[in-house]
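Subject: mismatched residue count in predicted assembly?

I count 858 residues in my input, but I want to confirm that the predicted structure covers every chain. Input:
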Amino acid sequence: MKRQLARELEGKIGETVKIQGWVHRIRNLGGIAFILLRDRSGVVQCVVDTKEIDIKGLKLESVVEIIGRVKEESRVELGLEILVQELKVISKVVEDLPIEINNEELKANLDTVLNHRVLSLRNLKTNAIFKVQAALAQGFAAFLKKEGFTQIFTPKIVATGTEGGTELFQVQYFDKKAYLAQSPQFYKQMLVGAGYERVFEIGHVYRAETHDTSRHTNEFISLDLEMGFIEDERDVMALETRMLKEIFAFIKEECARELDLLEVEVPEIGDEIPSIKFPEALEILRQEYGKEDLKMDLDPEGERLIAKYVKERYGSEFVFITHYPQAKRPMYTMPAEDGLTHSFDLLFRGLEITTGGQRIHDYEQLKASIISRGLSVESFSDYLEVFKFGMPPHGGLAIGLERLTGQLLGYKNIRQTTLFPRDRYRIRP
Amino acid sequence: MKRQLARELEGKIGETVKIQGWVHRIRNLGGIAFILLRDRSGVVQCVVDTKEIDIKGLKLESVVEIIGRVKEESRVELGLEILVQELKVISKVVEDLPIEINNEELKANLDTVLNHRVLSLRNLKTNAIFKVQAALAQGFAAFLKKEGFTQIFTPKIVATGTEGGTELFQVQYFDKKAYLAQSPQFYKQMLVGAGYERVFEIGHVYRAETHDTSRHTNEFISLDLEMGFIEDERDVMALETRMLKEIFAFIKEECARELDLLEVEVPEIGDEIPSIKFPEALEILRQEYGKEDLKMDLDPEGERLIAKYVKERYGSEFVFITHYPQAKRPMYTMPAEDGLTHSFDLLFRGLEITTGGQRIHDYEQLKASIISRGLSVESFSDYLEVFKFGMPPHGGLAIGLERLTGQLLGYKNIRQTTLFPRDRYRIRP
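Triage response: the counts match. Full output below for your records.
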């Protein structure tokens, strides 16, 4: 008999079926017992006559196979239950569970949850987070493919950093020193110039930052894109606006049950996301909130306040902040007037989830920018080569996948939306 | 005026259009010149009246913008050409090209090609390789999503190796020592047990192997999958057979032009790929080819000969070799009779492109297997936890994306189908 999933049983009333999964809950009422069996598709109620089938030793989270008849039962979620004829333990539980899985919310603290990450993922809500995350990444890829982007896989073992060598993890690479890539920035630009014009990557990036906040980990997934033949950064912002609309529409379809379970409202995005220039943002913070301590960048409080302002004023949960000062942007950023740049961040519910902008494409200008920052042109020679041989105007962006997931689903700590987080104190499991 | 791509000009005969791209070739016939303009979609012929427009200084590979009228021209590939009205250089070429790009085949040796990887990718054939590679990865993801698999992103910074600590790159992780993951093997198994049941990952893996062959690099992309609730390894093999059929059908659609340009024949896959048990494979090698030097594993020559045998006998370019000896398979491999295992490799045109098998799911059996190999149970405690709490029978496989690309497209050296290869001697560009 072929195994059926819980969600596949609809329309099979009266049939005898085989199901397999984990014992999610047991309710023993004496002569009769209810077992909730959980598989990857959902949870189904199974009714056991305990005079016929002995379930005394059966432990929560055992993997079992049940053969039984499907019966209509309007009081449960699926509208059906299984009258159990046979029950077989496929894989048993040999210790007491270190955390309770079958509650609606995990009741352990975050450290315990992460120490037992794999078991914590059996909790229905925790499990749903990473189904949504997968769909976000797939929506990103699907949209970009349709827009003529080529998916790329660039190396994570690199000879130099993109910013001149700070915050890099060092790798012992045979007899050489190498580093883990902070971002695919240089490679994606190079591949625009290699003729692909439009490229994207979904990959790991590494930041050896020592600070320990709820917004940072040291390894995360970056959704990167880069596109050639643009006018300026507004082309990239327009693409991101359309992309987020499509990704959100996609996950509403794809993850309807998960979003429902997590009680998440997917935000509406209009045809244009409000956009505020950095100097204006400072002005708003001064005038509206009396916040005067910012000069060259926004801090988390500033980002939250601007988001609040935009939400109240324009009803948008997103806002682009554009034209950051040159001093706060990397050497490859296209300069604009007054010491500003053709750059942007996208804030979502008060947190930066995207950094992007137009890049310098002229070889001499890029060299001059590197020198002006006290960096060595020679150390960027691999990156610079393509700029000597015809490089189109281009720009791009990077979205932190775990941050996007967290902001969308309402989790405060990035570790909650990272499958196996890596931070200063954690490299396990 | 909006930019048009070369491939979008069909049906625009008589219209004035704007195109942008690289100068692929120039043929100057005195009063008239032909410029081939290359963009991400293809190459279009542009006709310049050199008395009107001066192209004396125009260099190959410059990025230009051309405005002109589309005219029918049956003698060229697209069936049209552009009569140039305006030509503007957007980004110039400031040095002599280190390699010739516009030949049908790159004429430089592999080292030179890789030293100038970005420019070499402008060559039409070289460029096409990585469009096919992207489509292979996308076909993999699309098939698995349809089959109920969840895409996962597992950490590449890990505390221990999967095989007991050999061939690992070491990372200085703050004040700790960590390693780069050799494979997502443990994580994908753990996530099967976390309730996802079916998971896949497309990600980087790292092997600190010191050998230097045409089949190995030290960083590559692994197409990994793992599935729960299987009978044995044959379920995984059946899935891979269906998957390869679908991936190949997908790339035939998606990459018709690239495959044509590369003169590639995509192999047919029947409903079943021939399958030979390892001991029988040795017997065939002895009897048919007098090859007697193999005992516990196939070597590259053995793989080529078996592939030749299967091709001649069954007409298949693929063959599964199953039941490898326990001594040659990792500790998590499910044992079979006679010291063999529930494992398989898939050979494609004589090269192993997949390793897979059923895994041990019983906690005690897995612990015993670890101990029997002289490894420490304690060092695998993160991995082992889920096996104590109900782990379904499961198995999976890993496909090397660059190997699959190379075997499909007929490249002998894996570096040719790796975007930016990393080997013992190369970490740049």
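DSSP finds eleven helices and 17 strands in chain A. Marking this ticket as 'not a bug'.
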